[in-house]
Amino acid sequence: MATLDLDWEEVRDQLRAWREDNTRHSEEVVDMWDYCLKHYKHKLGDERWMVEEQVVIAGLDCYRLDVAEPSLVSLNEQFPGSLRVRKLKAMRLEALERFDEAMDVYDSIIRQDETNSTARKRKVAVLRGQGRIPDAIKELTEYLKIFMSDGEAWQELCDLYLKEGDYSKAAFCMEELILTNPHNHLFYTRYAEIKYTQGGLDNLELARSYFCQAAKLNPGNVRALYGLFLSCTQVSSSPKCSAQKKKETQQLAGWALKELSERYSKCRTNAMDGSKILETFGSLSLTDKA
Q1: Which 8-state DSSP code applies to residue 228?
Q2: Which of 174, 249, 243, 164 is nearest to 204 (CA)?
Q3: I need a labelling partner for 220 at 20 to 30 A (CA). Which of 42, 61, 101, 150 fits?
Q4: Residue 133 has pLDDT above 90, yes or no
């Protein structure tokens, strides 16, 4: 194993870098701790406790309770009554599928600290893991009343609403995200996809506009170009579409198809040939006469 070739200081520095980047790398953390760093933990000084916390989370991610539990015991002895340690205990209960007990621990943390965002998020994760989507939506909605600027929470709520087929509320979540980050082309793309799925001429025209904006913000967004082409095709085929609007929409669809063709011609390899896809798109009716 490559971990065996690493010096303990290199391992320490790598774990520190992952913590600073807020990335998990759970399997690597477990291996580095198990094969190397746990034998030198006495040399880590105060950093040891951040490392042990990192190891507990990684061990639970990988269901390596043999790795997670000794570090959890050490943390509990060092910081008795700590809310962070109690959160780790609740995560251990989740790993053991003792969900009701885990929820009780999270509730006790929230009673002691109403602004503890991590405990509230874990409750949502438990409910979603149990398939209790309406309850997860309710819990996440309450969370967002307190932490309204949490973009990840809005994305999660959007995903939950989509699972329930509630497209109007999912669209509202994306509107909140666009307001907080108006230069993120991915938000425009997803919002447009939701409006496209809702259907109806008004929603399709809105989808077309947002696909356009996504493509403007990032010309390399192929998903937005596909969406633009499809939404234009649907709008132009609507009997409610005026002759002038139909002509403009067909021109826009032709432009989107041209952009897609250029991108496929640049990246075409033996492993990926988009010509058949483009032929299918091109065969769709774009030349209906008003």
Answers
A1: H
A2: 249
A3: 150
A4: yes
